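JOB MANIFEST
job_type = single_chain_structure
chain_count = 1
residues = 173
[input]
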Amino acid sequence: MFFRRRPSKREIRREYARLLYDLKQLQRRVYVYMDRLRMRIEDLMSKLPYEDNENRKKSYVNTILTYRKVLSKLKVVNTALEYLITKVETVSLLELSGAEVITMKEVLTEVRNVITEFPDIDLIIEDLIERSVNLESYLNVSREIKLKASEDAKKILEVAKEVAKERSQAVLT
């Protein structure tokens, strides 16, 4: 039988910091994709008035619509990650708790379900979920805290969707 020693608080904090760092990297990557999509939409929009071929024009319009749908999903993901990072950083300044790790895991699971078009982002999210599960196993968390964390994750995603819609409307006006 193998015995696994419980990591020290220092090791747990280090793993938590790495998780937070990778969350920030993920948010930056999502932002880069958003910027690329915006540039591509602008490029296609600039070509649209000068295109004479109707089939190509329809293709441009369909492509623009598809890009806008993906961009709206990325905005929700970006906002959710931004909100989650702020919450995790704030709580880590106060004290690390298992509820935030579980909340992070739940939000990342939902984000992973939303964004399936980008395999590299999906792999990063999968890695972060796995690491948060490992970190969760070190922390003794009650069932009540897990339920509360799940509710917090749902609230984060709802707020992220609302903020993303507001930001999209602000950009359009």
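[summary]
The helical segments are 9-47, 54-94, 98-114, 119-138, 143-172.
The chain has a mean pLDDT of 82.
exit_status = 0
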